[in-house]
Amino acid sequence: MRNSGLAGKAAVLAAIVTLAVTACGRPGATPSTSGFAQDSLIGVALPQKTSENWVLAEKLFNEDLTKAGLQAFVQFANSGVPEQQNQISAMVIKGAKVIIVGAIDGSELGTQLKEAKDSGAVIIAYDRLLKNTDAVDYYVAYDNFKVGVLQAQSLLDGMKARKASGPYNIELFAGSPDDANSNVFFAGAMSVLKPKIDDKTLVVKSGQTTFEQAVTPGWKAENAQKRMDTLLTASYTSAPLDGVLSPNDLLARAILTSVKAAGKPVPIVTGQDSEVESVKSIMAGGQYSTIYKDTRALVARAITMVDDLQSGKKPEVNDVKSYDNGVKIVPAFLLEPVIVTKANAQKAYANDPTLGPLTTSK
Predict the structure, then answer these.
(1) Least CB-packed of 82, 174, 310, 345 within 10 Å?
(2) Is residue 114 in some structural domain?
(3) Do 251 and 270 share a domain, yes or no?
(4) C-alpha to C-alpha distance for 145 and 139, rounded to whole angstroms
(5) Number of domains the chain contains
(6) 280 and 305 share a domain?
(7) Mean pLDDT across the chain, nearest whole number?
(8) Cross-strand partners of 124
(9) What is the CATH number of the domain that holds 76?
């Protein structure tokens, strides 16, 4: 990082900063590119600790922002949306130049985000899109529609490897309805699965094929397990269950727990996040697949955006048309997710200090 180079011209600098803050405070204004001091405060508002990746993100943001000479103010909102609202307001009061937001509910932060924009802060949506507000400047995430596509394709591939042709009995799970990504994951998956449901290659015996029917409130394992228990009792007392679309690893493990408790054969179950327990399960022949979205790379990209803003540059984006949040198209930088099964796990995690090297169990 570098300073703006105007330290010796106090009057000019003051005028520029005043204009920049005024511009940032206008609805829909282009974020300031005049830069800010290297030791400025950067706020990071993270959601509840629902996965290992969020915990890792907290650690990386604290470490990497500090290494960059910035003040890191990183907080989790484990008590829910009101806590996250208060945390963002506190970041504004503390004078944060950039606020990175991993939202619990991306549609419930409009008032606080407007306060942040009015203060001159730049807002970066992290992993989850901030919705129904023009007070967001950038979005950094993995390509979440593609995540769903990869999950669905792995479900089909896994079932086909066990049984050459259908019909296959499957059930569908989605994430929490208050998470903007949940619908995107599900839409990506259904772009692959719906044609197969329509031509009867896939049979959803419960009949629950909509996002609203498949959601798992709060991303809670107990909610997924309870729903799976109900589905098994209602539709699979005699019929086989060939596969389950699960949006993440935590829910995948809950689904497998339910299946095992019912004494059923293990179906093909998808996942996401490459959590340690699920990777172990994949290597042991339990869970079939997961998605690798390297949190280190995602945090690094977010900090690169901060670095660019600090030095007066416009951050790089690679998608300027896909992410309509209901008010505006949010410029995005999307990273590529990777599908992981037992067949490619060693290669996928070769450079990950947490997950590699792996041992294979029969």
Answers:
(1) 82
(2) yes
(3) yes
(4) 14
(5) 2
(6) no
(7) 90
(8) 100, 138
(9) 3.40.50.2300
What pLDDT sits at residue 353? 84
Residue 24 pLDDT > 90, yes or no?
Answer: no
Q: Would residue 362 count as lying in a domain?
A: no
Whether residue 354 lies inside any domain: the answer is no
Output the six-digit token pair for 22.
Answer: 């005024």
Distance CA 248, CA 226 (A): 16
Name the more confident of 241 and 11.
Answer: 241
Any idea what DSSP says for residue 196? H
Q: What's the token pair of residue 275?
A: 């959590």
User: At 19, is the secondary structure helix, strand, or coil?
Assistant: helix
Where residue 50 falls among pLDDT bands split at 50, 70, 90? confident
Residue 154 and residue 32 share a domain: no
Q: Using CA atoms, how far apart are residues 243 and 215, in angstroms rounded to an integer?
A: 17
Sign of torsion over alpha carbons 86, 87, 89, 90: positive
Same domain for 115 and 67?
yes
Question: Residue 31: what pLDDT?
Answer: 54
> Which position has the token pair 């947490």?
354
Q: CA–CA separation, 302 vs 42, rounded Å? A: 11
Q: What does each C-alpha distance from 339 to 105, 140, 267, 315 come to in angstroms?
A: 26, 20, 18, 28
Residues near 37 by beta carbon (within 8 Å), at least 6 away in sequence: 3, 97
Same domain assignment for residues 208 and 344: yes
- Tokens read off for 201: 């290659």
pLDDT given for residue 51 in this prediction: 82
Residue 43 φ/ψ, nearest 5 degrees: -90, 140
46, 54 Cβ separation under 8 angstroms? yes
pTM of the entire predicted model:
0.82
Instruction: End-to-end CA distance of the chain: give it in Å, rounded.
Output: 49
Asked whether residue 125 falls in the same domain as residue 183, the answer is no
Residue 49 neighbours by CB distance under 10 Å:
13
Separate counts of helices (H) and strands (E) for the chain: 12, 12
In contact, 335 and 289? CB cutoff 8 Å: no
CA distance 17 to 29: 15
Structure tokens at 208: 């629950």
